[in-house]
Design goal:
Shape: globular
Oligomer: single chain
Order of helices and strands: HEHEHEHEHEHEHH
Number of domains: 1
Number of helices: 8
CATH superfamily: Alanine racemase
Helix content: 40-55%
Largest sheet: 6 strands, parallel
Strand order of the largest sheet: 1-2-3-4-5-6
Structural class: alpha/beta
CATH class: Alpha Beta
CATH architecture: Alpha-Beta Barrel
Length: 206
């Protein structure tokens, strides 16, 4: 069900993100047909066997978090021959609950590996919010991400152009921006709870 998405792009939004690969693949063609020039971001899990689909249908991937995916990613980029794919390395700054990105200690190795892939441009770091985070934990995570990004830039671990920091959701984007976020992922703030319920009723996730 793409009507809320079409409403958003008709209102002027030109950056869309999707957490679930099948939904993104289904939504994109009718949206692109109606409003060309939309940039699509993939923020969900990146199983090696499905990386080729993420590379084909999205201009940005926010969820590179395992060294074991690098080979599949490199092969997919080469096969698709895309002009440029923009990537963010996903970090788990607090190390709590389920895996939500690489540990800070793993990130430099991922950064190095990503930069060796032809046709890929590393843009910075990302953090996936988990609904179970308390407000205090979110603030703690935002502070840790800002510190990590700045430290890696100062030490040359991140290239100078890789300044993006993707973090924050509809409930806490203001705090995320105050801590250096350059990309925030807004769902409810844009589409509202009504659209979210429509997607849920039809088996979609917003």
């Amino acid at each position: 069900m793409v009507d809320p998405v079409l409403d958003a792009v008709n209102a002027g939004i030109r950056e869309l993100c999707e957490e679930y690969l099948p939904e993104g693949i289904t939504k994109r063609p009718p949206v692109d047909h109606r409003v060309p020039g939309i940039t699509w971001h993939f923020v969900g899990e990146l199983p090696p066997q499905k990386i080729h689909l993420a590379v084909e249908f999205f201009e940005w991937i926010h969820s590179v978090d395992r060294i074991t995916t690098i080979r599949s990613l490199s092969e997919a980029v080469a096969a698709k021959g895309k002009k440029e794919l923009k990537l963010l390395v996903e970090v788990n700054p607090l190390g709590k609950r389920k895996r939500m990105g690489a540990s800070p200690e793993e990130v430099p190795f991922l950064i190095e590996a990503v930069q060796r892939i032809p046709g890929v441009r590393l843009m910075g770091l990302s953090m996936k919010n988990e609904s179970a985070f308390s407000a205090k934990e979110s603030v703690e995570a935002f502070r840790a991400m800002e510190k990590l990004r700045n430290e890696f830039l100062n030490k040359g671990v991140l290239p100078t152009q890789a300044i993006d920091l993707a973090m924050g959701s509809s409930r806490d984007f203001e705090e995320a921006i105050s801590r250096g976020a350059t990309i925030v992922r807004l769902g409810k703030a844009v589409f509202g709870t009504r659209a979210e319920q429509q997607w849920a009723d039809e088996g979609w996730e917003s």
